[in-house]
Amino acid sequence: MKKIIVFFMTASLYCDLTAQTSAKLITKQPATVTHNSSSRSITTLDYSLNAVLWQQRSGEYKALCYQAFALAKIKLMEKIALHKKDGMQLAIVTDIDESILDNSPQQAADILHNRTYTEANWKDWTSKADAAALPGAVAFFQYADKMGIQCFYVSNRRPEERAATIKNLIQEGFPQADTVHVMMKDSTSDKEYRRLAIKEKYNIALLLGDNLNDFDKMFYQQPSFTRCDLVRDNNELFGDIFILLPNPMYGDWESAIWSGKKVTPAEADKLKHEALYEY
Description:
Elements: H1 11-15, H2 19-27, H3 49-57, H4 59-82, E1 90-94, E2 101-102, H5 104-112, H6 119-126, E3 132-133, H7 137-146, E4 150-154, H8 162-172, E5 182-183, H9 192-199, E6 203-209, H10 224-233, E7 242-244, H11 252-255, H12 265-275
Parallel strand pairs: 1-4, 1-6, 4-5, 6-7
Antiparallel strand pairs: 2-3
Helix pairs in contact: 2-10, 3-4, 3-5, 4-7
């Protein structure tokens, strides 16, 4: 039996590549390949099993979470030390899903019940207010709260999910989880205007997320090569102001492969295979 080994590379690891190597990686275009996926039924479940298992069962995933929040605490301590007492109060801004709360049980349910994602299934999950905190997340935010830092939770969950989301955050021990600090999606998934609203009153010391869109508008709705170029060109922000959490299950990195266009599962399957590099 052949062994299949899957490697996951986070943006933080990507940023550790040398500029020369990164430039070669980004500018190289994948070879055009022919991949016929019409011979079988393709769904998003084809790509989910290993990703969900890795998030739920691997020590590596948990270690990366602890590592991210340990780094976040170090950077926050530095920024607190440099903060002028007469300046604007410091704040941290975080995404919720796969940044501080683990929704892998919902993904696992889709696999086990052979169903693809729907908003109804997602809301059924969030209404339970039962998502566990990521390893190290609660301790970090409780430290920030103790140090007088404003903690904002900026999510693309819907407004009708706010009450259950706040309940979930409180149950897990996250501080300042209220209607002021928990900011939901309204007309757009672009979080820029919500970040700017916070910035009017506070000095944002850190941004935490699992998606580049959680950090800056420059990443929003960009194709994959542009996103990678932007990470390379702004690599000094990662591990300083931007703290990235691992999420192998879903994200805008995936739709960026087809530039955000609507595609069928079979079309997505074909485009993913064509995007691969081989030797």
